[in-house]
Design a protein that fits this description.
Blueprint lengths: L3 E2 L12 E10 L3 H11 L5 E4 L15 E2 L9 H11 L6 H21 L15 E2 L2 H14 L3 E3 L4 E6 L5 E7 L6 E11 L19 H8 L50
Parallel strand pairs: 1-7, 2-3, 2-9, 3-6
Antiparallel strand pairs: 4-5, 7-8, 8-9
Helix pairs in contact: 1-4
Bound molecules: flavin-adenine dinucleotide.
Amino acid sequence: MSANLLASDQLSNNGSDINLEADVLVIGGGPAGAWAAYNAAVQAVRVILVDKGYCGSSGATASGGTSVWYVANPDQRETAMASREALGGFLAERSWMERVLDRTHANLYELGNWGYPFPSEQQGQPYYRSLQQGAEYMRLMRKQIKKAGVQILDHSPALELLVDKEGAVAGAKGIRRQAGGRWIVRAKAVVIATGGCAFLSKALGCNVLTGDGYLMAAEAGAQMSGMEFSNAYALTPAFASVTKGAFYRWATFTYEDGTVIEGNTDVFR
Ligand SMILES: Cc1cc2nc3c(=O)[nH]c(=O)nc-3n(C[C@H](O)[C@H](O)[C@H](O)COP(=O)(O)OP(=O)(O)OC[C@H]3O[C@@H](n4cnc5c(N)ncnc54)[C@H](O)[C@@H]3O)c2cc1C
């Protein structure tokens, strides 16, 4: 693959090739892409989302679910951030932590309003830390982004980014696996949300996660950051197909000599 100059890249528009324009092109329709598409579309801009599989059932969340870093009480934010900072060797940036907490708070309430079936806490309040019904979550996201006006191209992997004469990313192109032919989208902004690179884990939903977005971004000159922390797989029972980490909440881990490893439940605080 290589990045093409937009000016010299004219796809024919015959057969089942399609040639589209958008304000924002989102590549990847997992939670990151779906939320990006939703937030752009509600600003009344034209948004196209392409997914390699079927947006709503493709990727690591749709087949499993996620636990969420949600801190309900503002007084507990400081403790929560300090705990994460320590876990991360004090390499995290507070401004990003705060942004994540803010967005999570807003998005979870939105999901609740849309009808996501959060489990209940003992006092009957929704338990916002759990999005473990990944299929339900992503089905709902697909419904909402369509409602917001996003055009979805399923089974349409992006193969390369388009760049203009100045080197700025100006869209992408790819293929239509079911309809046949190719697609090209020229866009003022492109969001790459193609997930991780976990296909070798063989975990459910990870077959599509072949690191395409990282490659496309690198080809367009992007600088990567924090990649040295992105190669860890979770523990899993030998017979399981999912390496999700929910069992950390209940399990006790020990060293070979039986000494308990402290702190493994901190990730859920
Ligand atoms: C093995 C594993 C275990 C995990 N365990 C947990 C856990 O216990 N708790 C927790 O909170 N989180 C967990 N996660 C993390 C969570 O699943 C991910 O953070 C989340 O799914 C990431 O969302 P995303 O939208 O970035 O990517 P994904 O949900 O993976 O979605 C990526 C999307 O991009 C599409 N795509 C890929 N390439 C292309 C392309 N070239 N063109 C178009 N579309 C493309 C895919 O089809 C997919 O739909 C785990 C992840 C993995 C891989």
